[in-house]
Automatic annotation (TrEMBL):
It is found in: Cell membrane. It comes from the Bacteria. The keyword Nucleotide-binding does not apply. This is MFS transporter. Residues 18-402 form the Major facilitator superfamily (MFS) profile domain. GO terms for molecular function: transmembrane transporter activity. The keyword Metal-binding does not apply. It is a multi-pass membrane protein. The chain crosses the membrane at residues 21-43, 55-75, 87-106, 112-132, 152-170, 176-194, 215-237, 257-275, 287-305, 311-335, 347-370, 376-396. Keywords: Cell membrane, Membrane, Transmembrane, Transmembrane helix. One of its GO terms (cellular component) is plasma membrane.
Amino acid sequence: MKSPVEVPPAQAIWRDRRAQALLLAATLTIMANATISPALPGLAREFADHPQVDLLTRLLVPAPSLAVVFVAPLVGVLSDRIGRRGLLVWGIALFVLAGSAGLVLPSLESMLVSRLILGIAVAAIMTTQTALTGDYFSGAARVALTGLQTSARNFGGFVFISTAGVLAALSPRLPFAIYALPLLVLPFVLQSLPRPVRLVAAQVGKASATDGHRNWLLILTGLLLLQMVTNMTFFIMPTQIPFYLDALGHDSAVTTGTVLGLLTLAGGLAALMYGRLAARVGVSGSWTLGYGAMATGMAAIGAQAGLPAMLAGAVCIGIGFAWVLPAFVTVMLAIAPARRRGAAGGLLTTAIFLGQVLSPFLSLPIIAAIGFDGLYLGAGVLLATISALALIGCVLQRRRIRGHAV
């Protein structure tokens, strides 16, 4: 078994068993919310006599996100205190129990409670998986792994949601069985991740009082705000595109599946290239290109130039988001002290899910005021502005490097 501090070459990162275990854990977080979406109409019919069936069935999907927002910072602090590997294992076990409970639970209320508990498991998995990436890997290998994690989430989400659609056609309860699949992953995680991670992290923290960036809390605060805004903007795709397509006269179900499917697949493929991209242009460069691609995609969708333009826009958004997202983890791991990676990762996880939760609430007033096209065009302007600021940062950084070289 590899030691916690042994770092493989970036090109061979996917062959490392620790990386494989963390990639498998990454795929679990994407299935938490949307996997049961295809089952919602069937569940509504099953509990048709319930007076609040419409509200409760719709709350089943975002419930894990709500739990993550409140729990992730606490889980992060806990992981720094008791160890990240053990908390990851317990998180996966809780994920299996809470997620698959919907197979047998007798009421919508009990299902909603199980979904909230599932959110606690997601917070544990996502927070510890991010921190362990920093514990096990550094440099180019760490950057490459963050890109692969985004790719794993995209491809995993595509497979899980597609499978859930097939199972939901047989029974609205069957999609909950997908949450039991991580039980097969658990032995591999236990075998592949070394035990002494907590000890190593603690030793690093004691060995260097200056571990991490001097102003890491200030930088992290800005990073969290940008992460929240990014996710809030991105999530107008899954939350608003079905209604936009319906308003344009398209078959919303089929076309929505095509648009989001292309977005997911494009993102999965683009994320595979993130390691090489970041090595060439750095974080500022990847943000410049990523936010620029997202801005182009939003503008194409808002322009009402026809379905082909919307599909091309979805591809651009998927590519851009895949180049933007890993950089947040890379920067967080670079600036936070090793002994505080769990806490920092928990806050980053909260920012991700808070953006998801806030997105519909902020989108609806904008749609009411300027329409769907105005929403997407406005998002394009916002993302283009962020891209321009990242470009300025990239240019200034290169000038600073050249100045030091001289």
